[in-house]
Amino acid sequence: MNQEKLFRSTGSYIAGTGLIESVNVALALEKPLLIKGEPGTGKTVLAQAVAEALGMDLIVWNIKSTTRAQDGLYSYDTVKRLYDSQFGEAGVSDISRYIRLGKLGEAFSHETQVVLLIDEIDKADLEFPNDLLWELDRMEFYIPETGVTVRAKHRPVVIITSNAEKELPDAFLRRCIFHYIDFPDRELLEEIVRTHFPEVEDKLLGAAVSAFEEIRSIRNLRKKPGTSELLDWVNALQLGGISGEVLEKELPFPGVLLKKDEDLDALKKHRFL
Prior knowledge:
Pfam families: AAA_5. Residues 29-187 form the AAA+ ATPase domain. The chain is of the alpha/beta class. The protein folds into 2 domains: 17-181, Rossmann fold (3-Layer(aba) Sandwich); 186-272. Helices cover 41% and strands 15% of the residues. The protein contains 12 helices and 9 strands. The strands form 3 sheets. The chain has a 5-stranded parallel beta sheet with strand order 2-5-8-1-9, with helices on both faces. The longest helix has 15 residues, at 202-216.
């Protein structure tokens, strides 16, 4: 592999060995990297870390339930063109003035290689992934309104995240490198926290991670806290002057970790009263 294009953990993102290997295989094979994992495992932040590690710009395409593949390619503002024609605006006949590239189009047209994050692809319609296959394979798309083919100046590094809300088509999966991010174990959690808060006291860190893991073990939580909530909580504990000894007896600021009434009620029924 090209040593200049190898991904490694950054100062703000700690990646496990398996994830690092998956990213670098995707880079070497020039294939999209499909990332799955429960919320809070750093799927979205991975793209930022890859862009930082490789010295590339990051383009983010946030997928919604109404998103179509066409949205990522380009849009044609027919309403503005009609408006301009009614008021005698010059240049109305130049359709290219009313074409706006989407996120995939931006990535293709960028002067340098970029990281393109297609975030939460499973939120879209079932046909959405298949509709992207041609463009992702060929690295080009055609704009019939202008007769122009947009070709990638540099093949973007494509990272796709999924929360597994829907099954993705087999044809799409065959074209991706897949990696499932397991939730960090205790050692990695402590390393992640120390990366963000190097001065955290050992006793506070140990007690916070223990309490965090115990909360995640409570059955039937609707939304388990993730690493981002842990980082926010440790920050709040430090700002509040909470010691490790206090955490052994009570749980301050529970609303930083749990965001649903039912989960807070479940916590009250647990040992933290």
